[in-house]
Structures are given as C-alpha cells and as structure tokens.
User: What shape does this take?
Amino acid sequence: MNDIFKTIGLCFKTGKMRFGTENVLNQIRSNNKPFSVYISNDISDNSKKKILNSCKYYKIKLFRLPVSGYELAHSIGKNSDVTTVSINDENICILLNNSFNASENNLNISLEDDNK
Assistant: This one.
C-alpha cells in the first residue's frame, strides 16, 4: 500500500497528474488525453458514472485504487478528498499498476459493462 502512495506522490511532484473529477473530465475531453484514470474506492456514484462514460467514449483505461479519497489526497499533499486522478505518463502508469497488481486484484474497471 505504501508503494501506491509513493508512486502517486512522485507523479504529482513531476507534474504528470491532474486531480479532481472536473479537471480529469476536462483533460479526457481535450487533445492531451491521459494514459490512465484512477478513482478512489469511495467515489460518488454520479462522479463515477461521469468518469466511466468519458473513459469509455475516449477509450482510456480506468482503474479503481484500493484507497479512500482522503488517503489519495494525503498522498499528493492536499487536505480535502480527491477521488479522481489522471496520469499523463505511460511509465508512471505502469509503475502504479505494478504497485497494486491491478490485474490480480480485479481493480481494472471494465469499460464494456454499462451497469458498473
């Protein structure tokens, strides 16, 4: 779990991350698309639906992190909840996915299933 926070903090410090649902949605819709989008496990249903629909439409990988919005915010030095982050660097996405083994823990959210 500590590796997840270190990787997210590193990504934030390098400037390769956007955070906040609206900021991430704006980036997804822009020409500078992220490699992956990550949501916390306590994201609201409305925000989750917006992110899921946008990622599905623009074919961007979406992952659910095994952390709360407070823990995610704390890892990037923020005081309030941060439930959504996008990462613009492919190598950092690979490092983050390896740190929580997305494929083994079924944290990859299927973009084909409309019911999630």
